[in-house]
Amino acid sequence: MFTHVDAVAGQLGRGLLLTLAMTALTFTGAVAGGLVVAVLRICPVAPLRAFGAGYVAVFRNIPLLVLLVLFVFGLPDLGLLYPLFATVTTAMALYWAAFVCEVVRSGVRAVPRGQAEAARALGLGFGQCLRHVILPQAVRPMVQPLGSIFIGCALSTSLAAAVGVAELTGQAEFLTLRYDQPLTSFALTTVVYVALTLTSGLVAGRVERKLAVAR
Amino acid sequence: MRLSRPRPALGAASATAALALTLTACGGSTTLPAASGSSGSAAADASKTYDEILAAAPVASAGQIPAGSLMAKIKKRGTLIVGGTDTSALFSLKDPVTGELTGFDAGLAAMLAKYITGKTSTKLVQVSVATREQLLRNGTVDTVFATYSITPERAKKVDFAGPYYSSGDAILVKKANTGITSVDDLNGKTVCTQSGSTAANDIKDFAPKSKVILFDGNSQCVQAVKQGRADAYVIDQAILVGTQYRDPSVKVVGQPFTTDPYGIGTPKADPEMKTFVDAWLKKIEASGAWAKLWKATLGTAVTGTAPKPPVIGSVEGS
Prior knowledge:
The complex is a heterodimer of chains A (215) and B (318). Chain A has a domain of 147 residues: MetI-like fold, CATH 1.10.3720. Chain A has 8 helices and no strands. The radius of gyration of chain A is 20 Å and the shape is flat. In chain A, 80% of the residues lie in helices and 0% in strands. In chain B, the strands form 4 sheets. In chain B, strands 10-9-11-8-12 form a 5-stranded mixed sheet, sandwiched between helices. In chain B, helix 2 runs antiparallel to helix 11. Chain B starts with 9 loop residues before the first helix and ends in a 22-residue tail after the last helix. The relative contact order of chain B is 0.17. Chains A and B meet through helix 3, helix 6, helix 7 and helix 8 of A and helix 1, strand 10 and helix 8 of B.
């Protein structure tokens, strides 16, 4: 394996790019989706609250791998055949959105009730109250849990290898088949994953300090 | 953080993945193993010719079976004890109605039994990859017909007559696909295979411009081909013909493009058995019975004419 450093590095590099793209897209999608679902879960309209709760119940309780297999092999049977990468990233974003929703919701719940009541007393509507009063205060306690979710996103991209996406773990499988050195190729990918997640942990800490609010 | 959520950790991920995928695999066929690829009358024809081929098989003269040899023992017993399986479609599969074993391996075993004893009577002992050598060495079975790849390592423990068939990586495509007929056509196409299989390397070696996707199991790969996510599925021919046998919406095209020679295992303690089986193989290959049997079994799933049988003794270990 060490005699093929260029080929190995190139292959792992391509896998890493795909992993990074997947992580970024998944996380962005999950945060956007999670915010929407969280708003549904705390809004005053009962059917929307029920929909939000149902969404979280469904997506948080299905193992991600099962979800991936259902999306990759189930959707084409319904006539929906999208590229593998898009299918897998969508499934992961939907899955992680359920977790983001709960983080956002608990962040919002961390803001004392009096704040919302005061906002209402000032004549702010539901949307205005969320935007100007609740969310700015709710963001800080959400940073570390969101950092954990980012790490979860990054690590869960490895499951995409099981449904045919040649990201980092997928490329490691190819290397294992080619050079028959499973420990070496998995050790290499482990180092990359750990570097990725340690960095995101550090970034989350920085962001948390930046967002410090005096209460 | 909830505890029940699967934590994707590198090595463990693939193990869990394999398990979960097996449990949730879509489109796995559970129908009875009937020859769904052909219509009823064609299937009846195939089984008729299969029986005819066995009926026309040669019988050894008394002079070819020296007293005291393993063959003489088998002749006295009247039945050949064969190590094999009854679940390998087109190679050795138990017919759920008649209880008879049919397939390429089963047919050859019956022909060998007839060559020694005069009738196609065989007794099957189930073997696995782990037990084949041991059962031959302790005399439980006379011979092994079980898509048994000849390797120098195994040849240290048992003798191999043959090779009697050359398998290897073959190509499976949708029935309607006419664009892929050989491994060269895979260039520029999306090809899937199982993640634990070295077929991934073979695809890259034989068709460098193809895009390879790895899925965890056979059913995922077949599903991907049927859904159009992959143009072709490449893996050992024995696996593909079994898949085709159960699922008529796909087909196996051309002959294997890599070589995996199958041999007939015989006990090392009875070297005369290997020579005897080799001579019999040469005889049925020359008479055309080998090709007829291929046509009646593997030929029902693989397109094209019967391949040329591999040269006896051409493989290291045979």
